[in-house]
Amino acid sequence: MCGIGGVMHHDPARPVNPDFLVAMAAIQYHRGPDGFGVKIMSDCGVGFTHARLSIIDLNPERGRQPFVSADGQYMIAHNGEFYDYKRIRAELTSLGYRFRSKSDTELTMHLTDRYGLEGALPHLRGEFAFALYERSKDRLTLVRDRFGVKPLYWTMTPEGLVFGSEIKVLLAHPAVQRRFSSEGLYHQLMQLIVPGTSAFEGIYAVEPGQMVIVERHDGQLQVKTKQYWDLNFPRQSERGARLADEEYIEELRSRFIEAVQLRLEADVPVACYLSGGIDSCTIMGIAAASQQSPVKAFTIGFDDRDYDETAIAREMAQATGADQDVLMVDGNQLYDHFARTLWHTERSIYNTFTVAKLLMSEHVNKAGYKVVVTGEGSDELFAGYPQLRLDMILHGMDDASPEERADLEDWLAESNRLFKGNLLAEKALDDPALTSLVGFTPSCLQSWLSASAYVPSLLHPDRRAALQNYSPGEAVANALDADQIEGRHPLDKVQYIWIKTQFESQVLGWAGDRVDMANSMEARPPFLDHPLVEFAVTLPQNMRLRGRKDKYILRETMRELLPKALYERQKFAFMAPPSHTDPVKQRAMQALSATYLSKQAIEEAGLLDVAGVQKILQRHSDANTPVSDRVQLDAIINHMLSVQMLHKHFVGNDVPVVARDRAQERGWYAKDQLVVVA
């Protein structure tokens, strides 16, 4: 895993400043501390930069990116991993292609030469984001993996296109403006963001499974996007005959074992994240069976029994003979590292478990590991979240009686009482635009949409006026592909929408890559192996949720690996205890608020309304406020803190100067690694 960046000028004769590229690499040093590289195609107005985390081919020179093909036709900068690369490399070698490194990155240039870029993409399996320039076509293409495990952003400036693995990489270029968009600010305060957008004016995310294609026409760069892969749940009319349970179970077993074993491949040691959930425990079981030596397992524990899962994780570690390392985290630590976490997430967070993840990746890094295998994606594929199960109960069980539905709703509400006001909305909400698209408003969006009712009063009056008639639900609905929703079962619809919204930006983003890579830690999620996913979307709904068993097929497939308590346990969302659950955490949150949400700080940033902020803080601290409301208000306070911190990090600071200083601190200079390709 690494960090990439680069530019493509409108005018190919305009020189590319190599010092800017070095600064863009240095500001993401955390993504790639093992070295950097800069290459410029001087006659094309194109330059790439790369900060390297060495996982495959540890030779510091041979694996140094960006890569340029031997004939000078292709240049690539790549972040991520391509699995099964040895087989593909052997096949290409037999066809006459010659490799200059052992890196998986080099595959892409040869595959593109043989099949064209679109023809090459089906061969690429894994988590990746890359930029490929094709000289003969004068074309730059930005590509992001199928789920968006790896981040990639772009913006257009008067000089041309600037791109990078993180927003700060773009902001490190002096031509990129640094300011919040009003719509971006609105969504930061309610958690749910519009796919493909960011908090900042003119800065966009390459979406999962998307290509952003940049070509010159008459001295101007033109941008178009193309979806090369999507989930593609079958329409109900296209689903074939149902198979026996055992056939689905055996197919999942085969695909899952292969996915885990592929992700254990590396030239450095590989560990596992182990929580008390079924996802990481099944991975742990397969990894332990696949390795000769004990697997290293890292677990986070909290100082609140309602949220702590270490007991089951310990049981699983003992059962598999894992070498377990438990990091216990308390409330003071979470708020002490909140601002540092926001530098890496680059967007608001609603719960401090993100901070806990950052502390865990730091702990793993200090233990000498660069790679961990993780359980993200299981809940998305097999309907593990309570919001997804609620929509199945409400909208996807045509044969159930009203009594059966009511019984399941009561069970779900009671078993997920901790998440009322957060993952589950306190009251049902109907958004006209989403209901028009889906047939109902997905429960997975309702709690965040209900939080949007607070947003107008929190906005600075000028921002509030600019967004007077803004509908966040409509903005999200318009960004979704209606063709992928039409004709699908209700459970398929909500799984698709969750994956395209909160999963990409939250689970894989600020709770995944951004806090793992903050400490140079590569996370590999086998549940997102795309051959496994393409099978999972074909599963009948009752193989995902059956009676009171969520993730039914995964439980049955791996039941022999799991402790009995875990096999029988309902999904428990991984979260840190909210601030109101403990006086120590409450005081820590209030101390941060005194700094970042003071009247002076709010007026200096010009984003929020002083009176609106104070009203939220007072209501949250009132012991008479209902618990579910306090859970929601806790998230809103975290959002308010977040936007103030983001402003300080990326608008208040002169980011190009920060980036230049970091390059000098690291001793990274263009003269040392610059390669100019004429």
From TrEMBL:
Annotated source species: Gloeocapsopsis crepidinum LEGE 06123
CDD domains: Asn_synthase_B_C, AsnB
GO molecular function: asparagine synthase (glutamine-hydrolyzing) activity
Enzyme Commission number, as recorded: 6.3.5.4
SUPFAM superfamilies per the UniProt record, alphabetical: Adenine nucleotide alpha hydrolases-like, N-terminal nucleophile aminohydrolases (Ntn hydrolases)
Reaction catalysis annotation: L-aspartate + L-glutamine + ATP + H2O = L-asparagine + L-glutamate + AMP + diphosphate + H(+)
Protein name as annotated: asparagine synthase (glutamine-hydrolyzing)
Similarity-based family: Belongs to the asparagine synthetase family.
Pathway: Amino-acid biosynthesis; L-asparagine biosynthesis; L-asparagine from L-aspartate (L-Gln route): step 1/1
Pfam families linked to this entry: Asn_synthase, GATase_7
Lineage: Bacteria, Bacillati, Cyanobacteriota, Cyanophyceae, Oscillatoriophycideae
NCBIfam families: asn_synth_AEB
Domain Glutamine amidotransferase type-2: 2-217
Alphabetically ordered keywords of this record: Amino-acid biosynthesis, Asparagine biosynthesis, ATP-binding, Glutamine amidotransferase, Ligase, Nucleotide-binding
Taxonomic superkingdom: Bacteria
Alphabetical list of InterPro entries matching this protein: Asn_synth_AEB, Asn_synthase, ASN_synthetase/amidase, AsnB_N, GATase_2_dom, Ntn_hydrolases_N, Rossmann-like_a/b/a_fold
